[in-house]
Amino acid sequence: MKHFRKELWFNISSRRALINITDQVDNCLKESGIQEGLCLINAMHITASVFINDDEPGLHKDFDDWLEGIAPHEPLSRYRHNLTGEDNGDAHLKRQIMGREVVVAVTGGKLDFGPWEQIFYGEFDGWRRKRVLVKIVGE
Ligand code: ZN
Predict the structure, then answer these.
(1) What distance in angstroms lies between residue 51's CA and the mean position of ligand 1's atoms?
(2) Chain segment 85-119, per-residue pLDDT in tens
(3) CATH code, 2-138
(4) How remote is the CA of residue 133 from the centroid of ligand 1, in Å?
(5) Model confidence band, residue 59 (pLDDT cutoffs 50, 70, 90)
């Protein structure tokens, strides 16, 4: 069995953003040479997510509005976590609901997606360097 590991780095210059990382993951798959197997993609930080959905700007704004409705960034005093001196209590909750990772089947050397599926990095506490892990196993 072959295995491949790579870290993708991000430095988002805003608090929140959704980034389509499908091409970067696809490049990892090409680099791995794996034809049949599984590809895991996970955020390596507890205030960021990796998820699969449609690459449609209206939907992305809907996600942001929905998450701000559930867990608004302010007031900071809303979150006990912020008593630690941090200001990212909302980002931990947003990450939890949007998920840590996705797994995509690899078939014939390609990411085996359903219709319109794309992979996104969800940043909820940006302005610093953060990573996503890509691990591919198979043959
Ligand atoms: Zn925190």
Answers:
(1) 20
(2) 999 999 999 999 999 999 999 999 999 999 999 99
(3) 2.60.120.460
(4) 20
(5) very high
